[in-house]
Amino acid sequence: MHPDLSFDQAPPIDVPFRFFLTAPLFGIAAGLLLAIVGGEMFASRWMPSALAGTHLLVLGFMLQTMCGALLQFLPVAAGANVWRPRLVAGVVHPLLIVSAVLLVTAFLGQQPGFFMAAAHGLALALGFFAIVTGIALLRTPARGATVMALRLALVALVATVSLGIVLATGLARGSELPLLALTDLHAAWGLGGWALILLAGVSYYVVPMFQLTPAYPAWLARSFPFALIAVLLGWSLLFDPQVPTRQQVAFIGGVVLSGVFALATLRLQSRRRRKVRDATFLFFRTAMLALLAVIVSVLVITWLPALQGEPRGAVWIGLLAIVGVFVSAINGMLYKIVPFLNWLHLQNLCGMRMMPPTMHQMIPEKRMLGQFRLHLAALAFLLAAVFWPLLARLAGLLFAASCAWLGYNLLGAVGVYRDFKTRIRVAA
Amino acid sequence: MTAASPATRVIDGREMQPPEPLERTLEALDTLPRGEELRLLLYCHPLPLFNILRNHGYVWQEEIFEDGTHEIRIRHG
Fold it and tell me: No. of H helices and E strands in chain A?
């Protein structure tokens, strides 16, 4: 059964769209960075260029779309009205862009001042965002697995940003803190907490609704975010860089747990009521298969002593998680959310006098499928480049091209929206 | 809101991706004769549709069945 949606409190369409349209630009930048730096970028995750590329994707691509989607999703699906969404977007969106650029520049140029400036910018942007969305989520009368998942995701965002600020300050000023071990914790809260719990919470809504599947099992939907948070809290509370086994156990526990979500989603997809294999379905299936590949990779690296000291192992897992899981899932969701929002806003504007363009007219399916194939090719080349560095520049160009095509497709949808809005005005 | 009329057109939107059920319903309402009824089957409570119906003078009756199907019967007000 689909959940109910209410569009009475939906924010203006430019609120989510400004985030969505910015994200592909950061994806292009990440691809071009790899194309310029080449295979050296994948030698280790501690390479400055690798850290810069990672943050172009997690801050520039992932966080941008997630913040935009949350501002739209909270009032519509969770009944949580966000205070002055246009003002929030007007503050958070530019601050996120500037902070991401500063952080990436800091990594590439090893500039202490830039680390501090980025830390301040991110603290301001995400602190404000977390307070506003947190209040909305606390006040909503809605109950259920999605609302709880969104609340826990927000807690994880705060933990991620706090650790990130500690790390940035440590890099800027020099620090006695165990920065490498703290980086693992920061990444775990960011990817395994904020990103994965948010993805799960949103999936509880959009997978049954847009992919025509049965609902997620109630026990899974409720317990999965709590279980992930419990693992992350355990890792944090028992944090001791001198005892790496603890971190390893928590890491493997969290990764295996995420497999439950991946398998549940794949099972729902296999039981969908109408066998539509559109771009969103394919992107989502890719994301879930990549999540399973992350688990297999982690287990193989953990149990094969020859691979344990191999720095490229972490790069492989990072690429699978960030590009394979999250960029794929977000890309697929954008292809439903953007045309759907277009349609609803146009429908609201024209009432029953005119019929807005259909979803397929907003972004033609052929273009979305073409971009999906390019994304798959980019992912394959990125993974291959971990072991064959000569492929890295080509992989970077393919990924940049895929993100450019995504941006082009989204802009096309915005163009359709604008044209039809003009027609409504003329007709009135 | 009244009971079902003899002439009823049916849109089964349970296996359609949003917003297709809404699109088809609005198209069908455009040509719905007075006195006839449109029967819409969905797996959700379509709040956006209700807002449109209210604003354009339609009346409706909703019933929820055990399998989760929402049956919405719409006619001119």
Answer: 17, 0
- Nearest CA to CA, how far is A6 from chain B (Å)? 6
Query: Residue A184: its pLDDT value, please?
Result: 93
Q: Where are the alpha helices (DSSP H) in A78-144?
A: 85-109, 112-139
**CA dihedral of A108, A112, A115, A121, whole degrees rounded to 10:** -130
Mean pLDDT of chain A: 93
What three-state secondary structure class fits B37? strand
For tokens 């890792």, the residue is A235
Residues A293-319 have pLDDT tens digits of 999 999 999 888 788 888 999 999 999
CB atoms near residue B48 (< 10 Å): 20
Would you call B29 and A343 a contact, using CB atoms and an 8 Å cutoff?
A: no
CB contact under 8 A, A2 and B42: yes
HSE-up (13 A, CA, CB side) for residue A121:
19
**Which residues, 6+ apart, have CB-to-CB distance to A51 below 8 Å?**
A45, A107
d(CA A236, CA A205): 30
pTM: 0.92
Q: What is the ipTM of this complex?
A: 0.75
Residue A126 and residue A99 in contact, taking contact as beta carbons nearer than 8 Å:
no
pLDDT of residue A289: 98
Whether B55 has its CB under 8 Å from any CB of chain A: the answer is: yes
pLDDT at A292: 97
Nearest by CB to residue A210, choosing from B17, B22, B68, is B17
Measure Cα distances from A326 to A168, A283, A284, A321, A377 in Å.
24, 10, 9, 7, 16
- Judged by a CB distance cut-off of 8 A, whether residue B77 touches chain A is no
Look at strands B70-76 and B58-64 and give their pairing.
antiparallel
What's the whole-number mean pLDDT along residues A54-77?
A: 95
pLDDT tens per residue, range A83-142: 999 999 999 999 999 999 999 999 999 889 999 999 999 999 999 999 999 999 999 888
d(CA A57, CA A104): 10
Say how many C-beta atoms besides its own lie within 10 A of residue A86's C-beta: 14
Q: Tell me the one-letter amino acid at A306.
A: A
Q: What is the DSSP letter of B73?
A: E
Q: Which residues contact A238 (CB under 8 A, 6 or more apart)?
A: A246, A250
Dihedral through CA A82, CA A86, CA A91, CA A94, nearest 10? 120
**Looking at the DSSP assignment, which residues form a beta bridge with residue B76?**
B58
E strand or H helix at B10:
strand B8-12
Write the CA distances from A425 to A351, A357, A410, A420, A428, integer angstroms: 13, 16, 23, 9, 5
Confidence of residue B4 (pLDDT cuts 50, 70, 90): very low
